[in-house]
Automatic annotation (TrEMBL):
Stretches assigned to the Cation-transporting P-type ATPase N-terminal domain: 142-216
This protein's UniProt keywords: Acetylation, ATP-binding, Calcium, Calcium transport, Calmodulin-binding, Ion transport, Magnesium, Membrane, Metal-binding, Nucleotide-binding, Translocase, Transmembrane, Transmembrane helix, Transport
EC numbers, comma separated: 7.2.2.10
Catalytic activity: Ca(2+)(in) + ATP + H2O = Ca(2+)(out) + ADP + phosphate + H(+)
Bilayer-crossing regions: 188-216, 228-247, 383-403, 433-459, 861-879, 885-905, 998-1017, 1029-1048
An annotated Gene Ontology molecular function: metal ion binding
Native source organism of the sequence: Vitis rotundifolia
Membrane topology: Multi-pass membrane protein
SMART domains per the UniProt record, alphabetical: Cation_ATPase_N
Protein name: Calcium-transporting ATPase
Cellular compartments per GO CC: plasma membrane
Localization of this protein: Membrane
InterPro entries named in the record: ATPase_P-typ_cation-transptr_C (IPR006068), ATPase_P-typ_cation-transptr_N (IPR004014), ATPase_P-typ_cyto_dom_N (IPR023299), ATPase_P-typ_P_site (IPR018303), ATPase_P-typ_TM_dom_sf (IPR023298), ATPase_P-typ_transduc_dom_A_sf (IPR008250), ATPase_P-type_domA (IPR059000), HAD-like_sf (IPR036412)
């Protein structure tokens, strides 16, 4: 302080001279203390000056922290000057930017644009990062507390950063962006190399290399490379297409991962609350945190109440950590808010946080195996074993026939003549036989099945994103198709989530259009307290005087809007008039929130509660009348209020009651853990009033519920609202029908449901359509019971407490708008628009995925069965296979990759929603599929074997032309069968085909490639030219697949699974062969039972 200012209050003393001139002999005790203090301070200054010389001064500038204090100059001065500057003690790490001026009003504010734009941000990134990571309170105090850090970062804790492009860019350049390094996604080359790891492919490449070497040695480079080279080209083509498909899938999943990680966060910038992406957060941002939010960066607790965080993702500790201003103000990125709310100051982002370091070392595993893929892996393995057995038999038969002289070359002479045959010729023939056998394995193994699932899932995930559903777990796509029950929330899902206060009861009188000045001032003031300070929402009014902006949940926004516009509430004035002492935040179990506050003027303390009307009513002993008098809440009055609440609820209104109690300091209650945690009074309250909020049903929801019911999917509504509101909404949405109102058990309350015995719950749960006043535990209990009954359950949820039910359900559906991050992470699919209609869209897509996969299984197994039988019979009977290795690889390419693309991209149709759900137990390959594929396979086998043995005589052609006819007919049969596979049960397979342009394009592309293979790549494919008549014959034979497919669908099928007949036949055959073992085993089972 200046000497002039000080002299008005204190006389001038030259303390340094006095202390130095005092003789030690005349010291009193007080003088000795002064001398010790002087020596200590001088020594400290010397040490401080020495340390400053060894520390490099920071180049950045900032504001020196201004505290209210009085400095005592104890050095012997030469004189006193009236114009001395104010004494300022700067942070030693930060150069002093504050101009030395007499008027504090001339000191720029931390948030002022002049200061932010004219001065560089301090280079303290490392210090802030380490301080938070280490929870270093000493360093924090060195900064001057959280306010000191805020001032250092040139921000106002109330207004946040400026938020303009220049300010955000400078902060991002200085402190980094809120992103972390991720390992680069796998490239195309990785998938190509991965495809080469297939054993069968490697064997084929070895065979191709040997064939290439023998061919060149025997026929020279110009002619000898055809056979081996053709296999090489065919193998590489198959590998390239498969690798390209996997690469595209990887990129698709990577894009979806980025979208799912793009969390929206509320921040304060330039005094305005706004929503931004988590990736746009910068150091200095002030972030709003509520229950269930993920903490987006490392930072410090600015202000808030009842704040507890779940740091288990970082520390592994399941206990919640309490965060406050004094003992633990440190917040870590990646943690979740378990209770309370707060504002935090961001101090570190991205790679400077522990979460960023951890996440950068984790690569996302896109090889997630869904249950359906696991089932298909088993199917592939089983078919592969059959193919291996057939290939081995073919190999043995062909080798025996070759070495016994039963095979002929192109000139009709025996291929093997014992010692007359050269070793190279023998090896070349053996290699060709091995290649043919291995190719049979390649064709037999339906590796296209996993690819088809992957393509279907990737395609559906992309389309579902456009339909407002973001898939977080692949398995949910297919599982949703089997869903039999959907347990849905009400607010925001069945309703528009556009709350508005439409009714207001003060005492037992409805206020209607009565203006606020007609309400008694004391009641009006109490209402303003209860609304403005007991809320997690906020009110912002731009400086231009434009309309108010309200933030928070729809309920909070509606009540705040009503209080500001109808009651004339001024939130800023309330915050200046009252100090909040303690807050109990709202959660879905308590269904209420409370706050205690102290009036600054007279220190009176009020406790306010707000919540579900009937619950708050139970806490009240009195109520206010419209005239301002307080009356006792006797039984008659209580019943009257209950009727009022029921009447509003029956009109689909959400009823919120407000109550308060004035207490003294001595009446403040505390929890069992001492005076550290205040407990709000919950008894003897005075009811202030009740408001009714209207949230209209979504117009499209009734139709969506009807679609679900017609498709065999039952809807159950689980809500926290009271019974009357729940009934009204459920009836309006079509969940409760006339037949349900007759059953007493159609609507239950959560407490009633949880008090049932397990047997009662299992007995009554099928009849329950609506559960009101439910807690998250009730929802979890219902999901568990339904799953025990064999149902496939989908559940919607948005709150943190919904996480257990979302995880327990077969399909967890979280809400993208109102859902907390905890709920989203626990879910399988995020409904981006919170709309029940989107839930039905997900159901439709789930059935489409399942149906598309079944189509491809039918198509591929037809090819597998036909190819295996034809090659096996031909090899055993004629000693040769009609399809060469290259031709079989070409067929493999058509059916695996192109077939998967064609059949896996059909969009959902209304027909899918006219079938019952498949449930848990229905086999993947149904009797309908067995009927269709066996009919087509038998036809192809009959035709091709006829061509194999009689084709030359029927068409009067040589062997080369006949082999080409067989190859061409086989491929075209698959093309025509692709159309049959589009509809498993419907006769009209062409319905809606014009909408699937990809299918038509792939079919056309396949036909063009087949023409090129036969007519232009004769050496490569081992074919000859066919004339127009021969092409017409091939097309005509293949086209018979259509009428066969049409006719066979008239054949009825049994409900009993097809494979169970084979199992029964095997057991019967076993009983015939081993009757003694059977009786022994039966006896053993009987003994066990007894």
């Amino acid at each position: 302080m200046s000497t002039t200012t000080t002299s008005n209050y204190f006389p001038h003393y030259d303390y340094g001279t006095i202390i130095l001139n005092v003789s030690a002999a005349t010291f009193t005790k007080a003088q000795k203390r002064w001398r010790v203090a002087y020596v200590a301070i001088c020594s400290f200054r010397v040490l401080l000056s020495l340390s400053k010389q060894n520390v490099t001064r920071q180049k950045a500038t900032s504001i020196a922290l201004l505290h209210s204090h009085l400095t005592l100059d104890i050095q012997p001065p030469t004189s006193y000057h009236d114009d001395d500057h104010n004494d300022i003690v700067p942070n030693p790490d930060l150069p002093d930017l504050v101009p030395k001026t007499h008027s504090p009003d001339l000191v720029p504010k931390p948030h002022s644009p002049e200061l932010v734009s004219n001065h560089a941000l301090p280079d303290i990134n490392t210090k802030l990062t380490e301080m938070v990571k280490e929870k270093d309170l000493i360093t924090l105090r060195g900064f001057g507390g959280v306010e000191g850090v805020a001032a250092t970062l040139l921000i106002d804790p109330q207004h946040g950063i400026l938020g303009n492009e220049d300010d955000v860019r400078r902060r991002r350049d200085k402190f980094g962006s809120n992103t972390y390094y991720k390992p680069p996604p796998k490239g195309l080359f990785y998938f190509v190399v991965d495809a080469f790891k297939d054993t069968t492919i490697l064997i084929l490449l070895v065979c191709a290399a040997l064939s290439l070497g023998f061919g060149i040695k025997e026929h020279g480079p110009q002619e000898g490379w055809y056979e081996g080279g053709s296999i090489f080209v065919a193998v590489f083509l198959v590998i390239s297409v498969a690798a390209l498909s996997n690469f595209r899938q990887e990129r698709q999943f990577d894009k979806l991962s980025k979208i799912s990680n793009n969390i929206k966060i509320d921040v304060a910038r330039d005094g305005r609350r706004q929503e931004i992406s988590i990736f746009d957060i910068v150091v200095g941002d002030v972030v709003f945190l509520n229950i269930g939010d993920q903490i987006p960066a490392d930072g410090l607790f600015l202000e808030g109440h009842s704040m507890q965080v779940d740091e288990s993702s970082m520390t592994g500790e399941s206990d919640h950590v309490e965060v406050d201003r004094e003992r633990n103000p440190f917040l870590f990125s990646g943690s979740k808010v378990a209770d309370g709310y707060a504002r935090m100051l961001v101090t570190s982002v991205g790679m400077n946080t522990a979460w960023g370091e951890m996440m950068s070392s984790i690569s996302r595993d896109t090889n997630e195996r869904t249950p359906l893929q696991a089932r298909l892996d088993k199917l592939t393995s089983s078919i592969g074993k059959v193919g291996l057995a057939v290939a081995f038999l073919v190999l043995v038969v062909l080798l025996i026939r070759y070495f016994t002289g039963h095979t002929e070359d192109e000139n009709g002479q025996r291929e093997y003549n014992g010692s007359d045959k050269g070793i190279n010729d023998v090896l070349n023939s053996v290699v060709n036989i091995v290649a043919a056998a291995v190719t049979i394995i390649v064709v037999a193994i339906p590796e296209g099945l996993p690819l088809a699932v992957t393509l279907t899932l990737a395609y559906s995930m992309k389309r579902m994103m456009a339909d407002q559903a973001m898939v977080r777990k692949l398995s949910a796509c297919e599982t949703m198709g089997s869903a039999t029950i959907i347990c849905t929330d009400k607010t925001g899902t069945l309703t528009l989530n556009q709350m508005k206060v439409t009714k207001f009861w003060l005492g037992q009188e409805e206020m209607g259009e009565i203006p606020c000045n007609a309400i008694t001032p004391c009641i009006l003031e109490l209402f303003r307290q209860g609304v403005g300070l007991n809320t997690t929402g906020s009110v912002y009014r731009p400086a231009s005087g434009a309309v108010f902006e309200f933030s928070g949940s729809p309920t909070e926004k509606a009540i705040l809007s009503w209080a500001v516009q109808e009651l004339g509430m001024d939130v800023e004035q309330l915050k200046q008039t009252y100090s909040v002492l303690h807050v109990e935040t709202f959660n879905s179990e308590k269904k209420r929130s409370g706050v205690s506050m102290r009036k600054n003027a007279d220190n009176t303390i009020h406790v306010h509660w707000k919540g579900a009307a009937e619950m708050v009513l139970q806490m009240c002993s009195n109520y206010y009348e419209t005239c301002g008098t307080i009356k006792s809440l006797d039984e008659g009055a209580r019943m009257q209020f209950e009727k009022i609440i029921q009447g509003m609820a029956a009109s689909s209104l959400r009823c919120i009651a407000f109550a308060y109690k004035q207490i003294s300091e001595a009446e403040i209650e505390y929890n069992d853990d001492g005076r550290a945690h205040q407990k709000l009074n919950e008894n003897g309250l005075t009811l202030l009033g009740i408001v009714g909020l209207k949230d209209p049903c979504r117009p499209e929801v009734k139709r969506a519920v009807e679609i679900c019911k017609s498709s065999g999917v039952e809807i159950k509504m689980i809500t926290g609202d009271n019974v009357f509101t729940a009934k009204a909404i459920a009836t309006e949405c079509g969940i409760l029908g006339p037949e349900d109102t007759e059953h007493k058990g159609a609507v239950v309350e959560g407490v009633e449901f949880r008090n049932y015995t397990h047997e009662e719950r299992m007995k009554k749960i099928d009849k329950i359509r609506v559960m009101a006043r439910s807690s998250p535990f009730d929802k979890l209990l219902m999901v568990q019971c339904l799953k025990q009954k064999g149902e496939v359950v989908a559940v919607t949820g948005d709150g943190t407490n919904d996480a257990p039910a979302l995880k327990e359900a077969d399909i967890g559906l979280s809400m993208g708008i109102q859902g907390t991050e905890v709920a989203k992470e626990s879910s399988d699919i995020v409904i981006l628009d919170d709309n029940f209609n989107s839930v039905v869209t997900v159901l439709r897509w789930g059935r489409c995925v399942y149906n598309n996969i079944q189509k491809f299984i039918q198509f591929q197994l037809t090819v597998n069965v036909a190819a295996l039988v034809i090659n096996f019979i031909s090899a055993v009977s004629a000693g040769e296979v009609p399809l060469t290795a290259v031709q079989l690889l070409w067929v493999n390419l058509i059916m695996d990759t192109l077939g998967a693309l064609a059949l896996s991209t059909d969009r959902p149709t209304n027909e899918l929603m006219q079938r019952p759900p498949v449930g848990r137990t229905e086999p993947l390959i149904t009797n309908v599929m067995w009927r269709n594929l066996l009919a087509q396979a038998l036809y192809q086998i009959a035709v091709l074997l006829t061509l194999q043995f009689k084709g030359e005589s029927i068409f009067n052609v040589d062997q080369k032309v006949n082999d080409t006819l067989i190859f061409n007919t086989f491929v075209l049969c698959q093309v025509f069968n692709e159309f049959n596979a589009r509809k498993l049960e419907k006769q009209n397979v062409f319905k809606g085909i014009h909408k699937n342009k990809l299918f038509l394009g792939i079919v056309g592309f396949t036909i063009v490639l087949q023409v090129v293979m036969v007519e232009f790549l004769k050496k490569f494919a081992d074919t000859v030219n066919l004339n127009g008549t021969q092409w017409a014959i091939c097309i005509a034979i293949a086209a018979v697949s259509w009428p066969i497919g049409w006719i066979v669908k008239f054949i009825p099928v049994s409900d009993k699974p097809f494979l169970s007949y084979l199992k029964w036949a095997g057991q019967a055959f076993g009983r015939i062969l081993h009757p003694s073992q059977l009786s022994f085993s039966s006896l053993g089972r009987g003994c066990v039972k007894r």
